């Protein structure tokens, strides 16, 4: 008797190892971002910011929760559909996510960072649409991330305009 590919994806220890893999991918994106902000706290505080900018201490807790949601969402879709278009879209948005922080904080390239965050926002949208076809739960897990990136995009634009 042959076991289907989807049954093999969800069997035993393998599914938990793959969850760790999704977590590791998100950790790498976060680590790249962490390297991009290292030692930039004073620089960020010195930027002219809109009145609605959050305190800098809020970013760490928010991103910790969001990265956990992103990892679980990707894993849920993988469990149902494998490494298909939805997971590849997930990978693409994660790459754009990793690029933003070094552009904004490391290089101080606020305009280029804004272009990246616009592409990230669109990539999250594509990911949400593809996830919707596979897992409503995974889609729901990405919505806070999409909302935060919307807010972060507006903040990026405002900082760029105020500091040009």
Number of domains: 1
Instruction: Name the CATH superfamily classification.
Output: TspO/MBR protein
What structural class is derived from the secondary structure elements? mainly alpha
* Count of helix runs: 7
Can you tell me the CATH class?
Answer: Mainly Alpha
Q: Could you name the ranges where pLDDT drops below 50 across 5 or more consecutive residues?
A: none
* Oligomeric state, counting identical vs distinct chains: single chain
Shape from CA axes? elongated
Largest sheet descriptor:
none
Order of helices and strands: HHHHHHH
**CATH architecture assignment:** Up-down Bundle
Let me know the number of strands: 0
Distance between the termini: 66 Å
Rg over alpha carbons: 17 Å
- Binned, the helix content reads over 70%
**What is the average of the pLDDT values?**
90
CATH fold topology? Ferritin
């Amino acid at each position: 008797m042959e076991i289907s590919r989807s049954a093999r994806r969800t069997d035993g220890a393998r599914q938990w190892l793959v969850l760790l893999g999704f977590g590791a991918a998100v950790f790498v994106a976060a680590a790249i971002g962490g390297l991009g902000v290292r030692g930039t706290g004073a620089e960020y505080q010195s930027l002219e910011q809109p009145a609605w900018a959050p305190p800098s201490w809020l970013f760490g807790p928010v991103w910790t929760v969001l990265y956990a949601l992103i990892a679980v969402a990707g894993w849920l879709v993988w469990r149902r559909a494998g490494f298909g278009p939805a997971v590849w879209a997930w990978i693409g948005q994660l790459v754009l996510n990793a690029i933003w922080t070094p552009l904004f904080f490391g290089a101080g390239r606020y305009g280029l960072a804004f272009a990246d965050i616009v592409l990230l926002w669109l990539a999250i949208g594509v990911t949400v649409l593809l996830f919707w076809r596979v897992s409503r739960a995974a889609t729901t897990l990405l919505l806070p991330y999409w909302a935060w990136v919307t807010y972060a995009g507006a903040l990026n634009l405002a900082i760029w305009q105020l500091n040009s």
